[in-house]
Amino acid sequence: MRGCEASQIELRTLLESLPEAVCIVDSSGRILEANSPTEHFVALKSEQLRGMKISELTKVVSIKEEGRALKYANLAVTRALRGESVRNEHRVFEISDDDRIEALVSANPIRGQDDEIIGALVVVRDVTELNQLQRRLADTERHRAIGHMAAGLVHDFNNVLDTLEGAVTLMEMREQAPMEQRRTYLEIAHTAIRRGAEIVARLRQYLRNGSGEVTTMPLQQIVEESLELIQPMLHTGHQNVRVKRELADAGIVRANAADLRRVFLNLMINALQAMPQGGKLTVKTERNGDGARGRVIVADTGVGIPKQQQKQVFFPYFTTKPTGTGLGLSGAQRIVLSYHGTIDFWSEPGKGTRFTVELPLAPARKERQVTNLTRLAA
After folding, report:
1. Do 144 and 121 belong together in one domain?
2. DSSP structure string for 2-30
């Protein structure tokens, strides 16, 4: 008995030394041990938790994934008791409307001598402050991209105003001229106004669809819209960059348009910044070999990425720019992976860099209609 008590003391001492919340449950889902950091997530003392069933705990705290409350069967601990290993899944713990904690949850089954599952070990790490910091920095990165575009948009818009002013001035000077002569200047003015509206719409195009709405859209169209967004930059600080467009049908993808614009715009801006002395920016869209995925290639002839830094390219906060946040490429990778796509690159110092993004294509509409009719007929 004393040996058992000594083991429990050692176990509790070990658990209390850990910064993460850790609890151990038996095969029935009853909590055997819980350290004090666990109290932060459930607002209950560790003494109260011991002996409590997980099913009872879910009545005290709501555990959510992407805004939806998880069912008991889908909890990490429940899945671990079924033999599954869970690694760093994002969850939100809500004790009340004002008490909300973001966390990464891991769980592993504990097996006995005969390999039967006798319990589970659950580890919960608070990432609320880290996620808030990442969101602020990601917002900064987005504003930086908008700033790059805005500088060029102002330049373009000033050109529009100069054209408009010139047309109006000529009309005033020839006020008594026949309407047929003045019509040319009216057309110039109307063209300038349309051009100004396009410039404003370009920025709105980048900002809209930020609600996370997922729709189907041609991948080629999203890339074309992203190319339009960098046009002002080509007119200002990157006049020596030649753009080669190789845009072919790349299929229909299901995603959020603003998400993909941010990915491609980030890749294009990075490419421009890698060519301070000028060069060639190639943007290509196509389908992959089996036609199941759309492919986008953004390549430059710039300075390239040093070999020793290439493994860190997608790491959050890693940057080679004096004023960069290091979240542009990591954010692009996160978005692409969230749509079950891939993003990789090739780079050689002094020769340039090529990024390749592939995204799964949505089923063709006719195929979906046939499938639906087949189901109805069945």
Report:
1. no
2. HHHHHHHHHHHHHHHT-SSEEEEEETTSB
Number of folded domains in the chain?
A: 2
* Continuous segment of H or E residues that includes residue 65: strand 62-65
Find all residues with CB under 8 Å of 229, minimum gap 6, and list them. 149, 202, 203, 205, 206, 261, 265
Alpha carbons within 13 angstroms on the beta-carbon side of residue 197 total 6
Percentages helix, strand, coil for the chain (3-state, rounded to 5) are 45, 25, 25
Contacts of 131 (CB under 8 A, 6+ apart): 102
Can you give the pLDDT at residue 291? Answer: 84
Closest CA to 299 of 342, 259, 241: 241
Q: Tell me, yes or no, whether 368 lies in a domain.
A: no
For the chain, the straight-line distance linking the first and the last C-alpha, in angstroms and rounded, comes to 65
The reply to whether 320 and 217 lie within a common domain is yes
The closest of 208, 171, 203, 210 to 187, measured between CA atoms, is 171
pLDDT by residue (tens digit) across 110-154? 988 888 999 999 999 888 877 776 666 666 666 666 665 565 556
Q: Are residues 284 and 316 in the same domain?
A: yes
Amino acid at 174: R
Range of the domain at 108: 2-126
Tell me the C-alpha to C-alpha distance, in Å, between residue 265 and each of 232, 259, 271, 283: 13, 10, 10, 11
Which domain CATH number covers 170?
A: 3.30.565.10
CA–CA separation, 46 vs 34, rounded Å?
Answer: 6
181 with 52, same domain?
Answer: no
